[in-house]
Amino acid sequence: MITKPSVLVARAVFPEVLHKLEQHFSVESNQDDIVFSAEELARRLQGKAGVFTTGSERISAALLAQCPDLRICANMAVGYNNFDVPAMTTAGVMATNTPDVLTETTADFGFALLMATARRMAESEHFLRAGLWTRWSYDMFAGAEVHGSTLGIIGMGRIGQGIARRGALGFGMKVLYCNRKPLDAETEAACQARHVSKTELLQTADHVMLVLPYSAEAHHTIGAAELALMKPTATLVNIARGGIVDDAALAAALRNRTIAAAGLDVFEGEPAVHPDLLTVPNVVLTPHIASATIPTRLAMADLAADNLISFLVHGKALTPLNAPAP
Ligand code: 8YV
Asked: What is the pLDDT of residue 326?
């Protein structure tokens, strides 16, 4: 009898995705959705050839050293800063993520957060719910213009390009971007975007959107010095990763009105949120939900599962991040 390889699904997932995995593997699931400590994760990975992870599971060199049977980690996320990819390559472990399937949904959310931030939707809703709305006034919750304004995008990958298209084609915005590498002329034309320096972008944009992947070099891409370069009327939106923004510096800049407002879907040390951000009114806060629609989350989970199946059953990952020696 051929025994099926064993895999761990580290967090709760759609039952149909578990069912699909069960056709190929002996599956240990976690439908109670407990977030495992590093020790618990290592313990549960004993004898497992694959693991289905989310952003909450850290795959480090120390963990890999304890899991000699592990051959693939399939992340249900496009971002993979929870993976030590070089250590995985050295340990002969395949790493995969879920690109493309969440691009448009995440770009939609980035735009929604920009609109909510610029037009002060959360602040005004709290005011209304608190029973403070007694009369109309000419400047009540007057926000920043979105259409026709200048949008600055830091990080111009797939999601950044989706946001640029929405801004340029849907809202007539002038789009500036900065990226390690400028886009090719054709992609730039499709996004109607112009490559500028980070300083020019910060000084010129009415709305700054962060969509770059997290890395050590990207840590605190926006701190006190960068916030000081921005217009006092500007908004900042972070749908990238916690740690790209210095949250303490941002809270101070919002309180001092160095910038007008911010919209944040990701936080340093999330799910904890810097306490100062909870006390400033001019910030819209959401709990890391930019990709959260059922069709998109299902597509992400499916792709992570398909990576496990494709690699462990057929020997080839669908969306590899590395090329470990077989
Ligand atoms: C996920 C994300 O919801 O894909 C990413 O990089 O940040 C989100 O879409 C989250 O990371 C859960 O894995």
From this structure: 78
